[in-house]
Amino acid sequence: MTMSVINVDQLLARATHSRPYLEAGAQDPLQNTIEATGETVSFDPNEEIYAEEDLSLYLYKVRKGTVRICRLLEDGRRQISAFLVPGDMFGLELGDCHSFSAEAVEACEISMFDRRGVQALAQINNSVAMRLWELTAQSGRRLQEHILLLGRMTAKAKVATFLLSLADRIGVTELRLAMARHDIGDHLGLTLETVSRTLTQLENEGFIRMRGARAIDIMNSSALKRLAA
Amino acid sequence: MTMSVINVDQLLARATHSRPYLEAGAQDPLQNTIEATGETVSFDPNEEIYAEEDLSLYLYKVRKGTVRICRLLEDGRRQISAFLVPGDMFGLELGDCHSFSAEAVEACEISMFDRRGVQALAQINNSVAMRLWELTAQSGRRLQEHILLLGRMTAKAKVATFLLSLADRIGVTELRLAMARHDIGDHLGLTLETVSRTLTQLENEGFIRMRGARAIDIMNSSALKRLAA
DNA sequence: CGAGCGTTTGAACAGCGTCAAAACAAGTGG
DNA sequence: CCACTTGTTTTGACGCTGTTCAAACGCTCG
Questions:
Q1: From the CB of residue A216, how many other CB atoms can be counted at a distance below 10 Å?
Q2: Which of A87, A113, A164, B169 shows its CA 20 to 30 Å from the CA of B205?
Q3: Partners of residue B136 in chain A, C-beta under 8 Å
């Protein structure tokens, strides 16, 4: 990974300039001001973007590829709280340190914005502050949904929900999974073996079709939804 | 439950007045401006504060008692994503509708603030906007921790973690549980029977002592922490 | 072609859920 | 003050879902 650091003053300057434009009705001030300053950086598969306890220096946006947000326990257990796909932002946390790590699942391109610059911008530009809140609130809602899944669903319902939400977020029913069974298991609170068994079961029952382990076609979306409930 | 509605203009007026004060270094603008306008309301045990899909009209703060945030599935399964204790705020969500319901676990006193007023205030007062973001970010971090618990912990570790976090948030090692075994189970992704069995097991092993079902003393906090990990 | 992962599949096991009953607590009315 | 009711908690027996351990299979890439 290589990158050049973004200048805070530059950010603030852009913010000031963009103000009249924003007041004229721009939809996403964060898009318009900050994103333009972001430096896009490449990460290799399984490369760490930041670790737990790392200083929180940047706000990130996925351009290409898939990112996982993880917590690790000493004995090797891992929980992936979310997968992020192009368009998703991450890295915005309370305090100066990350409480979770972020890793590239596959080769990724990720835009990085100076966190302090963004926060300074939020101080003077209310639309930016509101947008930051929206981002955080949206991720909160997803976490709530995931809590329901982890706490109250069977393996079958978990996998079905996972496939559907992935299809929904990407916008296609022919999925190419970027992540290994192991990653899916650590996301759904299952072992990789259970994920594998459940997928073959879903295939045998006609809900999905697999063209190789990573390419999954959803054959009957509404029937899958019934499983997921 | 009875209450009088809060006036938006009143809120905005207070916000304007409080500005010089805030700029002089107030710690929590939300505290100083909005909270002063809140109407405190009483709820009975198990009374619903708001339902899923209800219009999101207020921002709430727990004064006394305990609140649970729930999701329900058609077949009766329930997931409690959080318990809230005095000092916690809730009800702040993306969009105009709630995606979760909130219920009083025991008799509660809760302050309510007009949501639109708060948001209007956030538009003109940046400290308020930042505070709203902090609230959301903090609840997000708790949700992440809970995801780790649900996905990767055994029943024993779940219950141990629950007791410790409750003790930590209340600030005492002699707990009086406001909620039933059933509520705890729906929070930890367990059945009420498993919660009960696990508690008696923890008592037999000397980690806790029970003086009646709802009064639990943590005898060995550091040993309990080791279980929780 | 062979080495190294990732995936699938199998068999045995265990943790937790389910069902059922009993013990307990708290409130109600006689 | 006691009998009765209702809801919560505990305890037991049993079974199922998902884990663990192990082996075979199949990609992908030197």
A1: 22
A2: B169
A3: 133, 136-137, 140
Query: Tens digits of per-residue pLDDT, A68-82?
Result: 999 999 999 999 999
Q: If you ran DSSP here, which 8-state letter would residue A134 be given? A: H
Spatial distance between the Cα atoms of A197 and A188, rounded to a whole number of angstroms:
14
Task: Determine the residue of chain A that is closest to B72 in CA distance.
Answer: A148
Torsion angle of alpha carbons B134, B139, B224, A71, nearest 10°? -90
Determine, for residues A147 and B146 on separate chains, whether the beta-carbon distance falls below 8 Å.
yes
> Which residue in chain A has the smallest CA separation from B131?
A133
Q: In what order do the strands lie in the sheet with B67-72?
A: B48-50, B101-104, B67-72, B78-84
Cβ-Cβ contacts under 8 Å between A and B: the total is 115
Q: How many residues does chain B have?
A: 229
B42 has which bridge partners?
B109
**Contact residues, chain A, for B77 at CB < 8 Å:** 152
B93 near A CB under 8 A: yes
Q: Residue A211 is encoded by which pair of tokens?
A: 């063209």
Give the pLDDT score at B10. Answer: 57
User: Is the distance from CB of A207 to CB of A219 less than 8 angstroms?
Assistant: yes
CB B122 within 8 A of CB B128: yes
Is the model's pTM score more than 0.85? Answer: yes
- Looking at residue B21, what is its pLDDT? 38
pLDDT in tens, B2-13: 444 445 555 555
Q: What is the pLDDT of residue A17?
A: 44
Residue (of A164, A38, A157, A180) closest to A103 by Cα position:
A180
Q: How far is B167 from chain A (nearest CA, A)?
A: 22
C-alpha span between A166 and A85 (Å, rounded): 9
Nucleotide of closest approach to B155 (CA, C1'): C16
Contacting B residues, span 171-190, partner chain A, CB-CB under 8 Å: 186-189
Half-sphere exposure (CA, 13 Å, Cβ side) for B151? Answer: 30
Residue nearest to nucleotide C17 (CA to C1'): B191
Tokens coding A208: 């999905």
Residues in chain A: 229
pLDDT: which is higher, A85 or A36? A85
Angle formed at CA B142 by CA A83 and CA B225, multiple of 5 degrees? 110
Nucleotides in D strand less than 7 A from protein CB: 8-13, 17-22, 27-28
Q: What is the dihedral of CA B168, A77, A103, A155, to 10 degrees?
A: -100
Nearest by CB to residue A189, choosing from B73, B137, B152, is: B152
pLDDT in tens, A152-200: 999 999 999 999 999 999 999 999 999 999 999 999 999 999 999 999 9
